[in-house]
Amino acid sequence: MVRGGGAALRKYCSFIDDLRLYVRGGTGGMGYPRLGGEGGRGGDVWFVAQERTTLKSIKDRYPQKRFVAGAGANSSVRALKGEKGKDCEVHVPLGISVLCDDGKQIGELNTAGERCLVARGGLGGSLATNFLPCKGQRRIVHLDLKLIADVGLVGFPNAGKSSLLSKVSHAKPEIADYAFTTIKPELGKIMYADYKQVTSNFWEILPKISVADLPGLIEGAHANKGMGHKFLKHVERTKQLLLVVDVSGFQLSFKTRFRTAFETILLLTKELELYKEELLTKPALLAINKMDLPNAKDNLNELMKQLQNPQDFLHLLQEDVIPESTIKFKDIIPVSTCTGEGIEELKTCIRKSLDEEAEKENEDYRKKKLLLLRTSGDKQMNRG
User: Fold this and answer.
1) So what's the pLDDT on residue 52?
2) pLDDT per residue as tens digits for the range 64-98
């Protein structure tokens, strides 16, 4: 057993990406039978996306994990129509899916300021209810966090993802001395000298590109081995994938089989495919790390041959390792986080790839808009 692993796991436990809460809308106010007055409706419970908020901060601030909106005001001689109860607003992180206890999705919150109604207030007493108020909606909800990033780093443990993140960005990931070296998902920002970047539907000056480093996968991650589902879900909301592999290959422990760099790429592809096939449709780059090691160039040459004609080498592998389809990488960049080789080229490739995809989105948006205008024009001509 690796010394220090327990402390590292305790540190990981401080990161929360799922939180269970009780929410209840406010009870409506009493009606006023003699004068036909209506009680105020109970307040609603809303989740509001806010930057720099974490699920851990919610848990720490509200240990009871209960959120109840205010009751509606009773009808009275002075105010026949009672006032609505006070709404309860809960600030939650960006990238949240709100789920019922049965797993059904209530909504998603991806940008700052977005709101999701999670519990309605009860109606106030009126003639229709014999002037008796209704209770507010109550339910157990789950907040499921999936990190939002431009690029998601994917790789097996010890591929050098955390070191790579620290080289391309200002992030300082916490790294532990055990198999799952990255303690928790980490976000870094890549800064560019001119600050210019293409974004969906328009040009905009933006200072950074966000990169998410996800703790290393193992074989069987799709079946939730290791911490498979806990980390694979974070890949879902990244725009692009950056696979990171050790040019010398990978072996989790002396009990597990050694995998070449080519096998590693196929295994990562297989795990993504089995977890959610749509992940393979994301644009992808490949960083081949540890080019400072002995025999790295020979290993790289062999890997490039295999990637150029993967079908010629699949017969050498076990059938359960081979994915249904292979990832077509937009760029393959040899790097060394130790010497800095290839780091600037990688940053350029990441930016270029994101800009190209944004331009495609712009083009698709323009085509859709043009099609709508043409369809609208044709309808007007037909009417005429």
Assistant:
1) 87
2) 999 999 999 999 999 999 999 999 999 999 989 99
Please answer whether residues 143 and 21 qualify as being in contact, where contact means their C-beta atoms are separated by less than 8 angstroms. yes
Scanning the chain, the segments in alpha helix (DSSP H) are 5-12, 55-61, 161-168, 228-232, 261-275, 296-308, 343-383
pLDDT of the residue at 69: 98
Q: How far apart are the first and last CA of the chain?
A: 81
| Spatial separation of the C-alpha atoms in residues 46 and 117, rounded to whole Å | 5
Dist. CA 274–CA 270, nearest whole Å: 6
* Distance separating alpha carbons of residues 76 and 35, to the nearest angstrom: 9
Sign of CA dihedral 239, 244, 250, 251: negative
DSSP code of residue 317: S
Burial of residue 335 (number of CB atoms within 10 Å: 0-12, 13-18, 19+): buried
R_g (Cα) of the chain, nearest Å = 27
> Which residue in the block uniquely carries the two structure tokens 């790839």?
353
Nearest to 28 by CA among 121, 97, 152: 121
Contacts of 15 (CB under 8 A, 6+ apart): 56, 183, 184, 185
- Percentages (nearest 5) of helix, strand, coil residues in the chain: 30, 25, 45
Bridge partners, residue 290, by sequence: none
- Here the tokens at position 121 are 């207030």
CB atoms within 10 A of CB 4: 11
CA distance 183 to 379: 58
- DSSP string of 132-144, one letter each residue: ---PPPEEEEEEE
Q: What is the average pLDDT across 125-141?
A: 96
Q: Rounded distance, CA 22 to CA 139, Å?
A: 6
Q: How many residues does the chain have?
A: 384
Place 276 in a pLDDT band, splitting at 50, 70 and 90.
confident
Q: What are the tokens at 255?
A: 């009990």
**Cβ–Cβ < 8 Å for 175, 162:** yes
pTM: 0.74
Question: What pLDDT, on the 0 to 100 scale, is given for residue 326?
Answer: 84
Half-sphere exposure of 111 (CA within 13 A, CB side): 0
What is the structure's pLDDT at 173?
61
